[in-house]
Amino acid sequence: MSMKKMKNMKNIQGKNNKYDVLENIFNDEREYKKSIVHDNLISKDKKYIYEDELNIEENDSIVINGKIYSDMGTLEIHVFNYDEDIFNIYDDVIIDNYPLCIETIHQSYFKEKNIVAVGTLDCSIQLWDLYNIDMLEPLYYLGDNEMKKMKKNKKRKLKTNNNIHYEKKNIKNIPEDEEPNNISKQKIKGHTDCITSLNSSKILPSLLVSGSKDSTVKLWDLNNLNNLHTFSFHQKKINNLSFHSKDKNLLFSTSSDKTLKIYDIRQNQVALDIHLSNIPEATIWNTHEENIILSSYIDGYINKIDIKYINTSSNKPQNNYLVNFKAFENSCTSLLSMNYKNLTLAGSEDGVIKAYDFHNLLNEQPHCVYSKNLKKNLFYMKDNEDWPNVVFLGCDKLYDWDVFECEEIKKYFNL
């Protein structure tokens, strides 16, 4: 996501309303490069943020992360520009609960606003406007009828529709279809426990899916701010959710019940029910192989699954694994399929990151091209759409890592 903001130009005049270049050149430099905050976010070397770096330019990226403190939660807005070597905190806001998951929204009822959805500990999904992040509360609470509200200072009022639960087997009213008239409706609220996962569709950007500790998966229409359907296929907490990047109707979910379920969002039934060997930590679609899913576990194992060759009659998870190996001594908390072909990153909770080529197997394990120890806990890794070579690392702080700086990775994958 990018935001635009025009700089304010400042004219400096002398006593005679004439601008003296020689007299003011050093004053101009101090004014333009006035240090306002000392920052150690990127490296241990001293870094200063200047006023001109806090303006959001057309080519800048916005990076959002949530932080949990002992008594409060916050959202941090960062400005990032790889070409200009800028990575600064632009703003932050205290929210009324702990943020557990975050997803950027590209299409919603709020039209041109830059919206981010935040799943919290108190079972609400908050929709925040990044242009007005300093507001004391979000624009909207998604999925809780008692909490639903719009900002009082907004000119346009929302006509709130009751959430709809579809009992019919076939679900046909995704945004591009007309709503059937004969579907029974009943008022329901959102999730009844904390929100553990959020994911928006890249093909139908108004669709959002949420998972919760209450073991349900909910499909939301953000154009109308209502619930299209609730899937109740799992028995325990939802751990991961993801739409397919090419098939608009395909979705997977994983749970602490040790299952991976794949289904068509138009059908109220599971297409594939895959048993897993342990509780999954991270699960992703492979960027370059549309039928491949990679999953990691609390025991440090990683496996590769091809959904075209699933034996649904087998109760042995290993029978459905193309690759299954122990990557870490501790839990593997994050997986990332990079935009560069065959490059996959895996990270453990104790801060070890490994770069793998899953197409080059040695002793039934993918070739490990590179290993890096952050020497701090790692919670999450995220790539960057504007600069694919940059990976953001969620640790005690938010860090950026340029994989181009690693000669082993750059040489092996011909980057």
Q: How would you characterize this protein structure?
A:
With 415 residues, the protein is mainly β. The chain has a domain at 276-415: Methylamine Dehydrogenase, Chain H. Helix content is 4%, strand content 41%. The protein has 2 helices and 28 strands. It has a 4-stranded antiparallel sheet, with no helix packed on it. The chain has a 4-stranded antiparallel sheet with strand order 10-11-12-13, with no helix packed on it. It is globular.
Radius of gyration from CA coordinates: 24 Å
Read across the widest sheet, the strand sequence of neighbours is: 6-7-8-9
Q: What is the helical fraction, as a range of percent?
A: under 10%
As a percent range, the share of strand residues is 35-45%
What's the architecture of one domain in CATH terms? Answer: 7 Propeller
CATH class of one domain: Mainly Beta
Q: Enumerate the spans where pLDDT stays under 50 for 5 or more consecutive residues.
A: 1-19, 21-47, 151-170, 176-188
| Helix-strand string | HEEEEEEEEEEEEEEEEEEEEEEEEEEEEH
Largest sheet: 4 strands, antiparallel
Intertermini distance = 24 Å
- Principal-axes geometry comes out as globular
- The DSSP helix count reads 2
CATH topology of one domain: Methylamine Dehydrogenase, Chain H
Average of per-residue pLDDT values: 80
Please tally the β strands and state the result: 28
CATH superfamily of one domain, called what? YVTN repeat-like/Quinoprotein amine dehydrogenase
- Structural category: mainly beta
